[in-house]
């Protein structure tokens, strides 16, 4: 089970860290221009906060398990990312946009949380 957790968390961490850095580094107009229409509905600090949450969550999927310092934080990070992705899914559904990517990330984050709790506890 630990191997499955590592594989899943590595993939999720790559996605969330990349998405978080992009939201932190790019301006709101650049994000909208790049195809993230949802950014129009939010203030710039809110977009940056979401980016920070994704970045910290992505790091939280790997670092506690890797260092074996407070490994319980790994499934907690996965749970928090699942909550963030539920919010993202709601935003996309309200905007009548394709929410399939956010649903997949929600399910994978929830699976990581369950697997993480099974491994850690």
TrEMBL record:
Major location (coarse): membrane
Residue ranges crossing the lipid bilayer per the database entry: 6-25, 72-91, 103-120
Subcellular location: Membrane
Membrane topology: Multi-pass membrane protein
Entry keywords, A to Z: Membrane, Transmembrane, Transmembrane helix
Signal peptide (from-to): none
Highest taxon, organism lineage: Bacteria
This protein's name: DoxX family protein
Organism: Microbacterium awajiense
Phylogenetic placement of the source organism: Bacteria, Bacillati, Actinomycetota, Actinomycetes, Micrococcales
